[in-house]
């Protein structure tokens, strides 16, 4: 969005300096209680534009990972890196790879590797993070049209950067026994996000981890009969009543509802993945309410309980996490809510194709 708007900036609340880790000159040192430093990433605090966004328009998406399939060694961008597989088939932890310096061909390899591993955390990315919001968006556009979130705050002039912000004055929901809410970002969109990049600018000393679950493995572990049944189903995903903003809710783009297949196929790897999530999936199409609730609750429970298909990202300063939003679910963990600390992050998401049904004969509404 390039429209000129009137914005307000959310200033960080007063925080106990001894309990806040500011990622800056020396990220390993805690800021002494008696020293007050200006917040290094104040230029990345949230503003809330008052412009009304138009509906998102369909477009043709060419997955960057598809271009790496013909490379003789599509993992060569990791040749000098130390790669630890977090589990045998899902999640990697990488050190020694500077994402900011990747060539276009290496970005294609990156996209393919993320689609194959589901989620990858890259450590020591201060070069990338300190280059600023203009660099973030230019870098991310290689992977597709950038998604503009309908409610969230963003840095001034950079609507494509979705900000996550909790400080000493933030309220945390306490009406549930857990803060875990498995979801796939903005699955209500006609063309939801694919490759997604997220990093923290400030974080608590401990807590605030992010959980990821492989929807490929979640689907694969079901019985063949259940898999065949799920391939025949569609589900409604909705933004109505599912998004919240401290600036008044869905104020910048009208909420929509979209029908997607319950099982989608990845356009590059060919893998089948569950595509339902508790935050945005409303109902199964064509069945009665009780039947829909029974089936969805079974799938939500399956996703939540399959610890053998999950990884837990423990944040270190200057880490970046990239995941394929089409084939994973994730959840924040608000176990630091009583610590009165700052957690400030930025997310940039590239929209992907309209979900491809795993069942080739399934027809989706236009």
From TrEMBL:
InterPro entries: AtsK-like (IPR051323), TauD-like_sf (IPR042098), TauD/TfdA-like (IPR003819). It comes from the Eukaryota. Keywords: Dioxygenase, Iron, Metal-binding, Oxidoreductase. It holds the Pfam family TauD. The keyword Ligase does not apply. GO terms for molecular function: 2-oxoglutarate-dependent dioxygenase activity; metal ion binding. The keyword Oxidoreductase applies. One of its GO terms (cellular component) is cytoplasm. Residues 85-339 form the TauD/TfdA-like domain. Belongs to the TfdA dioxygenase family. This is TauD-domain-containing protein. It comes from Mycena metata.
């Amino acid at each position: 969005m390039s429209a000129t708007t009137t914005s307000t900036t959310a200033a960080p609340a007063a925080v106990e300096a001894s309990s806040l880790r500011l990622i800056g000159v020396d990220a390993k040192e805690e800021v002494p209680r008696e020293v007050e430093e200006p917040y290094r990433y104040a230029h990345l605090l949230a503003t809330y534009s008052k412009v009304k966004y138009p509906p998102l328009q369909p477009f043709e998406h060419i997955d960057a990972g598809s271009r790496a399939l013909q490379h003789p060694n599509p993992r060569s961008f990791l040749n000098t890196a130390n790669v630890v597989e977090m589990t045998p088939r899902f999640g990697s932890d990488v050190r020694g790879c500077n994402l900011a310096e990747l060539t276009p061909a290496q970005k294609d390899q990156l996209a393919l590797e993320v689609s194959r591993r589901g989620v990858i955390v890259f450590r020591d990315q201060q070069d990338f993070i300190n280059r600023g919001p203009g660099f973030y968006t230019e870098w991310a556009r290689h992977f597709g049209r950038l998604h503009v979130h309908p409610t969230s705050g963003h840095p001034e002039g950079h609507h494509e950067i979705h900000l996550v912000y909790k400080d000493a004055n933030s309220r945390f929901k306490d009406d549930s026994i857990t803060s875990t809410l498995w979801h796939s970002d903005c699955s209500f969109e006609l063309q939801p996000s694919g490759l997604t990049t997220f990093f923290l600018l400030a974080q608590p000393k401990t807590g605030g981890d992010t959980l990821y679950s492989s929807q490929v493995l979640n689907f694969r572990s079901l019985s063949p009969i259940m898999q065949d049944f799920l391939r025949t189903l569609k589900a409604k995903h909705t933004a109505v009543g599912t998004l919240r903003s401290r600036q008044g809710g869905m104020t910048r783009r009208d909420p929509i509802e979209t029908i997607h297949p319950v099982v989608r196929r990845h356009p590059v790897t060919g893998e089948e993945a569950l595509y339902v999530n508790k935050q945005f999936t409303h109902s199964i199409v064509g069945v009665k309410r009780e039947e829909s609730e029974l089936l969805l609750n079974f799938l939500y429970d399956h996703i939540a309980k399959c610890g053998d298909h999950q990884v837990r990202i423990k944040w270190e300063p200057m880490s970046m996490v990239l995941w394929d939003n089409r084939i994973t679910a994730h959840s924040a963990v608000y176990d630091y809510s009583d610590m009165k600390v700052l957690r400030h992050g930025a997310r940039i998401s590239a929209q992907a194709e309209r979900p491809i049904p795993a069942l080739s004969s399934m027809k989706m509404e236009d």
